Amino acid sequence: MDGERLDQMTKTLAAATATRRRVLRGLTTRSLGFALSRRGRADTVAKEATARGRCRKKKEDCRGDNQCCSGVCKRRRCRRAPGQGTCTVEKDTCRAKRIIPCNNKQFCACFITARGTSFCGDQERGRCASCTPNADCVEVTGAGSVCIRSGGGFCCDSLGSTCITPCRARATFTSGSVVTNERRWERNGQQSL
């Protein structure tokens, strides 16, 4: 709508007692109220959809691994997966073909392991490898590594699997010093950068 038509509409609506400013304020308030009510309904619908068909969180009832956000259901309860961090089975960097960050850390991304569990891995320390159990990856990328399902984007398409290390703390430089956790990693003989 152009300015002239809006001006004409406000003049018509403002006929006798209301000012143009008051009419515009009323239109704006109604539009904003409508938008917020639609957003509230969308939030409610999203929550209901989550309860009905999306993954279930830790300690919620489950009947199978595929119902849990972690991909782990034990004794009819969803449990955390090792190295899960902030990831869920609905977040997979390989499937999305874009980086889905996790743990609020640079270079950390969400993946799905060969076992179907969610995993927060260090995207810079992954290696294309033919793997099935996680044990295959220990030789390739070191202790704590897991085998993830590949499938495009940032992952190894040709092999169908990738070995990746868990997301670890990285060095943060502040006034020339390195964060204490990084020093611990270096003392244990593990390179952190």
Number of strands: 9
Average pLDDT confidence is 71
Coarse morphology: extended
Q: What proportion strand? A: 5-15%
Given as residue ranges, the uncertain stretches (5+ residues, pLDDT < 50) are 29-52, 170-193
**Main beta sheet, described?**
3 strands, antiparallel
Query: Strands of the largest sheet, in order across it?
Result: 5-7-6
| Terminal CA distance | 56 Å
**H and E string:** HHEEHEEEHEEEEH
Count of discrete alpha- or pi-helical segments spanning 4 or more residues? 5
Pick out its properties.
193 residues; alpha+beta; 3-stranded antiparallel sheet; two-stranded antiparallel sheet; 5 helices; 9 strands; 33% helix; disordered C terminus
Describe this structure in words.
With 193 residues, the chain is an alpha+beta fold. It has a domain at 90-187. It is built from five helices and nine strands. A three-stranded antiparallel β-sheet has the order 5-7-6, covered by helices on one side. The longest helix has 34 residues, at 20-53. The model is unreliable at 29-52 and 170-193 (pLDDT under 50).
